[in-house]
Amino acid sequence: MAIIIKDNVFTLQTKNSTYQMKADSKGVLLHTYYGKKTDETDYSYLISMQDRGFSGNIYEAREDRTYSLDFLPQEFPVRGSGDYRISCMHADLGTGVRDCLLFFDSYQTYHGKYGLEGLPAMFASEDEPVDTLEITLKDSQEEFYLHLYYGVFEEHDIITRAAVVENRTDQEIRLSKVLSACLDMDHDGLDFIHFYGRHTRERKMERVPLFHGVTELRSTRGTSSHQHNPFVILADKTTSEEMGECYGFSLLYSGGFHLHAEVDQFHQTRLVVGIDDSVFTWSLQPGERFVAPEVAMAYSNGGLSQLSHCYHNGFQKNLIRSRWKDKRRPILVNNWEATYFDFNAENLLKIAEEAKELELDMLVLDDGWFGKRNDDFSGLGDWYVNEEKLGCTLKELVDKVNGMGLQFGLWFEPEMVSEDSDLYRNHPDWAMVVPDRRPIRSRSQLVLDMSREDVRDYIKERLFAILDSANIQYVKWDMNRSVAAAYSVLLPRERQGELRHRYVLGLYEVMEAMLERYPDLLLEGCSGGGGRFDAGMLYYCPQIWCSDDTDAHERTVIQYGTSFFYPVSTVGSHVSAVPNHQTGRVTSIRTRGTVAMAGSFGYELDLNKLDEEEKKEVSEQVKSYKKYQNLIYNGLYYRLCDPGESGMSFWEFVSEDSLEVLVQGVVYRAQPNALRRRLRLAGLSEEAKYRVTGEESIYSGKTLMAGGILLPEIKGDDMAVQIHLKRLSTL
Ligand code: GLA
What we know:
- By secondary structure, this protein is of the alpha+beta class.
- Helices cover 20% and strands 31% of the residues.
- It contains 14 helices and 37 strands.
- The chain has a nine-stranded antiparallel β-sheet. It has an eight-stranded parallel barrel with strand order 20-21-22-25-26-27-28-29, surrounded by four helices.
- 53% of the residues are buried.
- The structure holds alpha-D-galactopyranose.
- Residues 336, 366-367, 411, 478, 480, 526, 528-529, 545, 548 line the site of alpha-D-galactopyranose.
């Protein structure tokens, strides 16, 4: 077992890391070590106890003025303990004061991975080296408990954390903050790597030094958001892709979140993460439990690439449940950028015919097939097929598409309602609008109250009716606005603060029910592109539409940021028309294809509008993707350069046995009379020989990683390069 317990010292061992905590003589659960793999020594000897001015002492310390939670490293700091740093919990136990104080109560361990009721969580099968530790803390005076869960994924160097609060008193307990995890580190000088953005510009990597004070990331949008992603990295200043220490934190949650890093007066660093607490309240009744979402932490002393590999492998094997996760995904053509709302069965079938000709696998019908929906002002919620617009029933259309040998997929936006819809006219109270106040609209739509059972039942009934009516093998689940001024008619005034979390629980419940009923369905997540691209969603959707920006140049940056945590197979990525609809940029069909191949591949244009040369290229791309898909999905992924610094973006896939290597990328600007650019490869076997496909030259892995390869001469902006190598034998 990877969990060693001695004298209340808990040491968790993974392949390359050690995590340790200790219930000390007062019963406080201290955090004593996280980093490079080491032994089970009690690392609390490194804590320097001293009487420090203005640092309070808990009562249990008696006359020992050197004992203060103001500086001690802790597993789950709470408000009210004399620790003035950011905390994980505010709990009103009945006095109106939001303070408590938790002490060690008990623990248990078992083989396997804990699960979380109603929330996504990493999982493991019986035969995997994964163990669970559960530590229970109890308030110093009340029957108020906190269960801390640790899932130790030895092979992936991942430790998951979760927190469950339990009220065993006979009174209501009011929570106004329950985060999922804290990590205290005994030093400062760390870089904070995070991924910010906006609609059509998600997950732009930024690396900044932490300073004395608080660095805060938050989504108050009810979704994980385009603006900030719920994953960050803490890294040493010198950490690069290839070397150095770094720690990753990924929250498995699709609602608003909150992530704070604080460097304190003693130059220690604290990171806390969990549900957005800006409007959060929760009334915990006697006997009830509140479950905070899971965090997946990983440690690497082999740089950022190694950290990404921990998450790629961990999420691919132990988070994504879909039956599709190891299968070749269908190469699809989606009609959105081809037709927008202006389509009927006839022109859809024309696209399908061409798709078949080019050996694609699936036609996806996007927005506009239901209710009265010829623009984005009406119809959401009315999930009834608009047969008049289609010119036939959905089944007739799907049968024809299937008859051509193509599969069929369909778009939904289940959480939304248009004011101009029958659903809204019949159930205005189903929208989350504050009574007697004017709603905040966005894309002219309102958000349904997913905390309500009747709303969820309606959505299920409609989704299932449509999915039962025809052979639909793929669903794109969209969500096209942020939550604002939310109110639920069914919740009393003092419980409105629960709504946003109840919304997320409701969303997960519907997705779960859908996947239970259609286990073979391929579900693609989407929120105006990547507005809900988070690890929580991956539990339900093996792929997520990465961004509404389909411009290949821009996509290299978006996909670069996304790659730090999320496996390539999860990145929905399509070739679209030029001039690009978002940026007006013209890139070649080859460049668009090369960039889109670093993901779950497809097309999003009217294939009939391509000229013969372009069709030939598409045909090649389809063949090439089918050939390399296993390598792309299951190979180790390396970022070869930072697109922000190098004027180009290159990435590489190395097969697990390192026999095959695929390098892809884009050089942004052509320059006259320039030296040819060099590119150092990564992750090869040093002593082995590699041949570049189509060339005679043979190089050793060492040479390719130290000297690199020479890129071809570049003519034209945004030119794609693809290089395939095969390993020959050892030298
Ligand atoms: C969102 C999605 C797009 C498309 C439109 C349809 O913006 O991200 O891909 O489905 O909605 O309205």
